[in-house]
Amino acid sequence: MLWSKIFLPTLKDTPQDAEVISHQLMLRAGMIRKVTSGIYNWLPLGLRVLKKIENIVREEMDASGAQEVLMPMVQPRELWEETQRWKKMGPELLRIQDRHDRDFCLGPTHEEVITDLVRNNVKSYKELPLNLYQIQTKFRDEVRPRYGVMRGREFLMKDSYSFNINQDSLNESYLLIKETYKKIIDRLGLEYKIVKADSGSIGGDASEEFHVLAENGEDTIAVSNSSEFAINSELLLTEGEDINSLEGKPSPDGNGIIEVKKGIEIGHIFQLGKIYAEAMNANVLDNEGKSQTLYMGCYGIGISRLVAAAIEQNHDEKGIVWPEAIAPYEVNIIAIGFEKDDKIKKTALNLYDKLLSMGYEVILDDRNDGFGKKMKDAELIGIPINLIIGKQYTENNEIELRHRDGKSSISMVEDIETIFDHYKSK
RNA sequence: CGGGGUAUGGCGCAGUCUGGUAGCGCACUCGCUUUGGGAGCGAGUGGUCGUAAGUUCGAAUCUUACUACCCCGACCA
Fold first, then answer.
1. What is the percentage of chain A residues whose pLDDT exceeds 90?
2. Rounded CA gap, A100 and A415, in Å?
3. CA of A49 vs C1' of B29, distance in Å?
4. Which nucleotide lies at the shortest CA–C1' distance from A388?
5. 10 Å Cβ neighbour count for A368?
6. Interface ipTM
7. Which residues of chain A fall short of a pLDDT of 50?
8. How far is CA A327 from CA A19, A125, A320, A330, in A?
9. What values do phi and psi take at A216, rounded to 5?
10. Closest by alpha carbon to A294, among A118, A172, A159?
11. In this complex, which residue's CA is closest to the C1' atom of nucleotide B34?
12. What is the pLDDT of residue A239?
């Protein structure tokens, strides 16, 4: 992609209505623009990141044996009456009417729809366990949307639902998803903790949250500094303890010391048990021909929230520092004097084509601007590798290879291909 | 929903107290010169000052109502 062609409106000044760093940087880096409170446009650069995360999630979900479906955003009132949630849910459930005055809602989650689908189409224990997922836009009319896409009203989420014949099978599905989530967040390159959680209004039995650690996190969690132990403050509150009083104490699991940290909840897994299946009469026949109520689990990952969380965890004073796996582009070629210097133009285009053909995602800064502006923008949008073709090239055939995280080296132009061959192979 | 704040060109702001018909920086357009840390000169484009009503000869400025947005709290991927 040529920088002169891409729709990438970067901002020098921080918009006044953005408070947290990820929101500021997403606006400044031209990733998103607000449409109205809690609802955003995704611009090309932001969308690339969103899609990368989405694809990693999809790949790992598929690898776990889950199958992708797509359910409607608009859902009929009748299904929500079956579980009593039409009444129980507050105004965060956005209700609308069609031309016949029939009631609908915009789906904040899909237990009702998926349970309806499964009860109508799955009749035997032989078809279980079944794990279905979708990646879809959700709408929750949040009391107070804030922090950009971190807590939007409209957001992209991967939600999945497992259907099991009994509790043991549910346990297995739950653990499988938990392992899948670990793989996903590891691949994204983010630091996280798994936290025992209150299962909240959705109800059910076991429940754990996945938190990306970040200073601006909305949740306070207590974690061990040398084991997997972690607990959410909400859970402690029900036991009447102040989470900050745990700081420095030995971890209850006997490993390490408790540290109190801030986290962003980007995933949540629940064992729902039989509550939804019972309410909606979702049964299958077991191996003795007897009707059994299904056991269910539900598992969410906030995809759009992950974009913001990744930035909260990976930025510096200059801008975003993308983890390689989710960077919108892998390489940024900065050509100084692109229009004026034929040697630079030729080499930049040549390198651009070469890297593209090697399979790299490349953006070429061919704009008619000076070094300062191009570097500032490059640092802002946080592409992992910047190749600088400028004076040093004109004079000595040298190209600077500058990593966004600080490292920098000088190479001769003819060595670039070898260097990138090496990257690709590792 | 309770408390606080903001609203003037795409972004950041001044002007409001003390009414006189809108200004600065950045961005954008054209030309020339520039190109290793957000370039220079010259010439331009763009705003009925959130909306409505009122006071006044005259309102961005005063009055009233409304709306939107942001922040803090109670809910959540």
1. 77
2. 69
3. 33
4. B36
5. 9
6. 0.93
7. 202-203
8. 23, 43, 10, 6
9. -85, 10
10. A118
11. A370
12. 61
In this complex, the nucleotide whose C1' atom is nearest to the CA atom of residue A33 is B10
Distances (CA, A) of A323 to A1, A153, A164, A320: 20, 26, 36, 9
DSSP β-bridge partners for residue A232: A221
Q: Which amino acid is at A347?
A: T
Distance, CA of A230 to C1' of B19, in Å: 62
**What domains, with CATH codes, occur in chain A?**
21-316 (3.30.930.10), 329-425 (3.40.50.800)
* Distance of C1' in B2 from CA in A318, Å: 38
Burial of A274 (0-12, 13-18, 19+ CB in 10 A): middle
What is the number of residues in chain A?
Answer: 426
Q: List protein-proximal bases of chain B (any atom < 7 A from a CB).
A: 1-2, 6, 11-13, 25-27, 34-39, 68-77
CA distances in angstroms from A65 to A61, A328, A359, A382, listed in the order given:
7, 28, 29, 34
The helix-helix angle for A303-313 and A21-28 (nearest 10°) equals 100
Tell me, in Å, how far CA of A26 is from C1' of B8?
26
Residues 6+ apart with CB under 8 A from A64: A131, A176, A177, A179, A180
